[in-house]
Amino acid sequence: xxxxxxxxxxxxxxxxxxxxxxxxxxxxxxxxxxxHAVRHVDLEVQRGEFVAVMGASGSGKSTLMNIVGCxxxxxxxxxxxxxxxxxxxxxxxxxxxxxxxxxxxxxSFNLLARTTALENVELPMFxxxxxxxxxxxxxxxxxxxxxxxxxxxxxxRPSQLSGGQQQRIAIARAIVNQPELLLADxxxxxxxxxxxxxxxxxxxxxxxxxxxxxxVTHELDIASYCKRIVVMRDGEVISDTINPxxxxxxxxxxxxxxxxxxxxxx
Length: 266
Ligand SMILES: Nc1ncnc2c1ncn2[C@@H]1O[C@H](COP(=O)(O)OP(=O)(O)OP(=O)(O)O)[C@@H](O)[C@H]1O
Ligand SMILES: [Mg+2]
Known about the structure:
Number of domains: 1
Number of strands: 10
CATH class: Alpha Beta
Shape: globular
Radius of gyration: 19 Å
CATH superfamily: P-loop containing nucleotide triphosphate hydrolases
Helix content: 25-40%
Strand content: 25-35%
CATH topology: Rossmann fold
Oligomer: single chain
Strand order of the largest sheet: 6-7-8-3-9-10
Distance between the termini: 66 Å
Bound molecules: adenosine-5'-triphosphate, magnesium ion
């Protein structure tokens, strides 16, 4: 049964998992070939968690993220987002829900090449309902870019920025509508170590501020910034553990900065 959170006897939202997959499956059919990309996945993610999804290439991580992000529906089992069965929603309702509740960050940044940083971040607010005035859109986009340290690059186009800066625009765009759930698929895949630490720092800050995060990564190094690590193989979850000694990006960044300063002085 799916829960209607507006029902007077419904449990308070805080007690409902943000994500609940019940034996979720996804079969792709191409001609005669069937690929079982996700098989019988049971997974619950509570508010405030920061989960890494790991696994070899082809193990079903992106397929799972597409289901969780309502970009794709499971072909078997159920997906409840905040207690609501996504299968029951119309396309329009789904689009609104994606826009309001979810933020996405991808490996390839997915920015519009010919538009400025500011305009890229304003984009998700275009589709917001109720409508947001252009002035408010601009102010919020500016604030989001300032939050990721790009307040001085508002008018730059993606091609005029480094990979790390482009990913920070993508993060600003993902958080501008104040999502409750942030989904990231290999957000540091194209970035060097230092920039990766910076990006993980932003994610940890956002998570500390209450945003639930699910992030796909190939690298254990990156997963170790998360609070919980889920591992997939052949479409199944084969391990799901709490990370007892989480790395803290802010501390590591300060240490790196200090070491670089010392090296310059020497
Ligand atoms: N649109 C599609 N049509 C058919 N098969 C697909 C489609 N998308 C993915 N697959 C198949 O589903 C399986 C899981 O793919 P998925 O993209 O989820 O893997 P992944 O774990 O994200 O891999 P990677 O680490 O390489 O990104 C793979 O075997 C893939 O070939
Ligand atoms: Mg993938």
